[in-house]
From TrEMBL:
Transmembrane segments: none annotated. Coiled coil: none annotated. This is Tf2-1-like SH3-like domain-containing protein. Residues 99-164 form the Tf2-1-like SH3-like domain. It comes from the Eukaryota. It holds the Pfam family SH3_Tf2-1.
Length: 173
């Protein structure tokens, strides 16, 4: 959304921005946030201004408000498309098969403690581990060694990195 659209009066348009956002369809929840919260669609308010600041009455304010909401929704849609394309450009397509070997990404401070080491300079990946089963499209069950029995063996694809067979890459856990 661009503040330049409203120039000097952007702060007076904040309620419109909030209204437009709360009543715009969100793909993640498959409805508008207002509808998710209250269980019904929102009825458009006729005015948001304070009683002491009423300068427009009737159809003029409805038309102006509707135009502002449309402009805000268009800007939100444009911002969403831009953010999605940026995120997609950094995304990598990974597909693993049963029997492939992968490294497992671990958090440097808390996650690696499970594997007996801790610290910022600890390896970011451990393994390699063999994929036992594909669960859905984004999760994989790994064959973990017995000493890692306390760790759940199903991981999201973002926590895995393909193993390229090279003995110098393998770190013992």
């Amino acid at each position: 959304m661009c503040v330049l659209d409203f120039a000097d009066s952007w702060d007076s348009k904040l309620p419109l921005v909030e209204f437009a956002y709360n009543n715009s369809y969100q793909a993640s929840i498959e409805m508008a946030p207002y509808e998710a919260l209250y269980g019904r669609k929102c009825r458009s308010p006729i005015h948001w201004d304070y009683v002491s600041e009423r300068t427009e009455i009737g159809p003029d304010i409805i038309e102006q408000t509707s135009e502002s909401i449309k402009r805000i929704r268009d800007r939100m849609k444009t911002a969403h498309i831009r953010q999605k394309s940026y995120a997609d450009s950094h995304r990598r397509d990974l597909n693993f098969e049963i029997g492939d070997h992968v490294f497992l990404k671990v958090a440097p401070m808390k996650g690696f403690m499970r594997f007996g080491r801790k610290g910022k300079l600890s390896p970011r990946f451990v393994g390699p581990f063999q994929i036992q089963k594909i669960i859905g499209t984004l999760a994989y069950r790994l064959a973990l060694p017995p000493e890692m029995s306390a760790v759940h063996n199903v991981f999201h694809i973002s926590a895995l990195r393909k193993y390229v067979a090279n003995a110098s890459h393998v770190l013992r856990h």
